[in-house]
Amino acid sequence: MCEDGFTLVEVLVVITLIAVTLTFLLNFFIASSQYLRQSNHQLVANNLARLKIEASLNQNYDDLSTSTLESFSDEEYQNYQYQIVVQEIEDGLKKIIVIVKDLKKTRAKLVTLKAKEN
């Protein structure tokens, strides 16, 4: 006897396969969105650190000094803070370290050198 259609077991197997597949896809999309958000925070922090490095390099050599942890003045970046650490490596050469943090952790740390101009 041949009947057209699906049995209850076949329907349950298909529903189970669809549910498992959708679960994996949903987890993938959730993880991807979290990764993208973290990448965005990292990118913003790196760019803010570069901005402060450039500002430090444009300062007079003798005016370079270590700063305390400060917030960015731009409202868009109010969740980020930075610190500039200046170390004299040798006479006429300073090491500039810029550290950028968000509310949770350190996101970027850039280092450069500046020589005293004659």
UniProtKB/TrEMBL annotation:
Coiled-coil ranges from the UniProt annotation: none
* Top-level taxonomic group: Bacteria
Signal peptide range in chain numbering: none
Pfam families reported in the protein's UniProt record: N_methyl
Keywords for this entry? Membrane, Transmembrane, Transmembrane helix
Any transmembrane segments, and where?
Answer: 6-30
- Its protein name is Prepilin-type N-terminal cleavage/methylation domain-containing protein
Q: Which organism is it from?
A: Halanaerobacter jeridensis
